[in-house]
Amino acid sequence: MSRGQHQSKKLKSLGAALESGALAQVRRILNSDLQAADVAHLLESSPPKERNLLWNLIEDENEGEVLHNLSDELQSWVLNRMSVQEVANAMTDLDTDDVADLLQNLPNTVTQEVLTTMDSQDRARIEAVLSYPEDSAGGLMNTDTVTVRPDITLEVVLRYLRRHRSLPEMTDNLLVVNRHDEFIGILPINKILVSDADTTVREIMSTDIITIRATMEDTGVAQIFERHDLISAPVVDEKSGKLLGRITIDDVVDVIREDADHSLMSMAGLDEDEDTFAPALKTSRRRAIWLGINLMTAFLASAVISIFQGTIDQVVALAVLMPIVASMGGVAGSQTLTLIIRGQAIGHIDSSNVRWLLSREFLVGISNGLLWAIVVACATYFWFSDIKISLIIGAAIIINLIVAVMAGAFLPLWLKRIKVDPALAGSVLLTTITDVVGFFAFLGLAAGFYF
Amino acid sequence: MSRGQHQSKKLKSLGAALESGALAQVRRILNSDLQAADVAHLLESSPPKERNLLWNLIEDENEGEVLHNLSDELQSWVLNRMSVQEVANAMTDLDTDDVADLLQNLPNTVTQEVLTTMDSQDRARIEAVLSYPEDSAGGLMNTDTVTVRPDITLEVVLRYLRRHRSLPEMTDNLLVVNRHDEFIGILPINKILVSDADTTVREIMSTDIITIRATMEDTGVAQIFERHDLISAPVVDEKSGKLLGRITIDDVVDVIREDADHSLMSMAGLDEDEDTFAPALKTSRRRAIWLGINLMTAFLASAVISIFQGTIDQVVALAVLMPIVASMGGVAGSQTLTLIIRGQAIGHIDSSNVRWLLSREFLVGISNGLLWAIVVACATYFWFSDIKISLIIGAAIIINLIVAVMAGAFLPLWLKRIKVDPALAGSVLLTTITDVVGFFAFLGLAAGFYF
């Protein structure tokens, strides 16, 4: 039986034990049978009451590893119920970057208290990582590099490694530095294995490799890892050329996942860390704000309609048909918006191709506008037998679809330039535009034609 | 200067060379200066005309690597303009899984032709991978495993490796098999380095490790890699226990990116592989279908409104206010829908917690419904000084918000059960429900109260 099947069997027996209240058994499964990552996933998939119960059954020595595997949202939840000493204990076995990650979720005063409980070397390392923003290469890096000098032979390297008895996880390269700790190149572990023992490091090291600046944004780091299929990459100080640490693919995968989730969740006004099982009160408070913002745009649309109350009073069919114009604009615009936001996230869009993109969207707006204007106009004529309304709704749809795709393209570009998150603000602004323009075009044309 | 800065400098000079028409220079940069991954990214970020020009300047021997780095959408585009022999040549230097990936984008007859040009060992390997669905572990795996027997010493292993002179990329473990090729365990490369040469493989190999079934879905594979921070994992035949191949993190990262993109893009009716720079005609045809589907739901909403034409004729304020009810429902519902779709994608939601989730959403619907009903009712009274309409819109908002969050929660669960993609079908169905219920509740209550 494979490991994976074992795990899911254990999870099932855990569920049964939980339901029957056999807590000793639950405790055993949590602390001995399951891996920390599985326990973390279990906590993330549990409603608050079970979550509380499970966390209390995890033994102190396992808390650190589980904690590190939890999402940001749940880390805060757990950290808030631990004392400073408990937090410090839980962190003893973790990598520098993971400790720094956790500390970033704590209030500043608690962070300082936890740091004072550490020995000075650990503290210095963690403070180095903490000195960079959380979403930068520096905040993502780990200081557990294994470095060698270029002029020694592989035999010496191997002797040195055997003395250490273990290498940090995800070590695919040793990092070659000179006596000033300046980064020179990498020595792939695999090359050590297949080369003769009397070769020197300099002879087989690679120097044409990608280094990461400590100040680089984490999404940029992720693009480099994705594009070049890296397992780890050295982080180097821009000015001094000194080796600062390294970034590993496991942390990059988290960035990729969060980054991709970010666009999806933000477009619905949710946080990418949003806890699926947050209590009703907590999640409804957050979502209420988003509804409030959308309510304002809805009232704005109503205000536009109210200008034309007189027209609607005369031709009530306008009230029946007006949501079609707004809705088609909303859909067309959000397609463009999504495409551009995704393109920005993968790094496809820059000043060299943006003009082509805008003119392409303009063409898409015109052609789809024409197509659906004809369809809607025919359907309207068939329904109301009124040629005037049919022509008016057709014209309104063309106008709104063109405006919608142009807004869907311009908004994210403009929002990014003024450093506002396009995924978060884009969809609300777009809906406002397509509703207002949709109602205004349709009812305005009607008012003009009928009076 | 770091490698990364070098690259972006080269890209800039490429842009300048392209604009000035210095094709010889462009050709040199494309084929010697840039890595295949960067060239692929450049092609993906180029409008069709430049893309064509660039592809023609890439030399035959580099085509394979560039091709492998392209998105599915662009792979098809390139493959369609190559002859069978060119395709076969381009594939000579690629990994089995990458070749299989490419072949899956070709018509079946072409695939067969390409396979006949290969030697029998390569063909057998590729056919093995092709025999699994593209989105399964088998379709994702590579057959370039380095295997060892448990009873040999590390010295023998090292001698064997030195004879090979190179290891496949992303090799963090050698795989230990018995004489029947059945998988026994892994021998981490790092352990070879830090252990004495006379140790046997059996003494230091790990046997409690995660294996992947060949039939597992690729999203499941991604979750395992993410959760356990793997670089590679062995793929094993469920029944025989035989080692089939291995999956590496670089391919898993692509699955994670595609999977996360899928939800975002599908909710706007787009394909996750959608080419950002597709020609206007191609992209507008695809998007037109989505607009057509949405038009049907819009006409359904109009049909509901038309039932109450008489009521609107009497109280025109209803036409002004009705979009608010529909829009609030749409927003509230899409928040729940997004949360559940994301939860499904990460594997957080199963039968054990779904009931809790539904009741939580019900509470969120009631509380946000009440809150915004009061706000909207007050705003309406302030605007129209009509207590009846204020009460009616408040009631309609409570009804629609509760229906919206319940639909947002039930729809993806139900769609997943009937094997329809929740991200694709969910948002259209949800809008239909929130529009229809919104208009019906508001206008229906009004009709009841006024007559």
Secondary-structure map:
2 copies of one chain form a homodimer.
Chain A: H1 3-20, H2 23-33, H3 36-44, H4 48-57, H5 60-69, H6 72-79, H7 84-90, H8 96-103, H9 108-116, H10 120-130, H11 137-140, E1 147-148, H12 154-164, E2 173-177, E3 183-188, H13 189-194, H14 201-204, E4 212-213, H15 218-228, E5 232-236, E6 243-248, H16 249-266, H17 280-307, H18 309-314, H19 317-346, H20 354-384, H21 387-417, H22 422-450
Parallel strand pairs in A: 1-2, 4-5
Antiparallel strand pairs in A: 2-3, 5-6
Structure description:
The structure is a homodimer of 451-residue chains. Chain A is 69% helix and 6% strand. Chain A has 451 residues and is mainly α. Chain A folds into 3 domains: 3-140, MgtE N-terminal domain-like (MgtE N-terminal fold, Alpha Horseshoe); 147-266, CBS-domain, CATH 3.10.580; 280-450, Tetracycline Repressor, domain 2. A 3-stranded mixed β-sheet of chain A has the order 1-2-3. In chain A, β1, α12 (154-164) and β2 (173-177) form a beta-alpha-beta unit. In chain A, α3 (36-44) packs across α5, α5 packs across α7 and α19 (317-346) runs parallel beside α21 (387-417). The longest helix of chain A is centred in the C-terminal third of the chain and has 31 residues, at 354-384. Chain A is elongated, with a radius of gyration of 29 Å. The relative contact order of chain A is 0.07. The mean pLDDT of chain A is 89. The interface between A and B is large, with 131 and 132 residues.
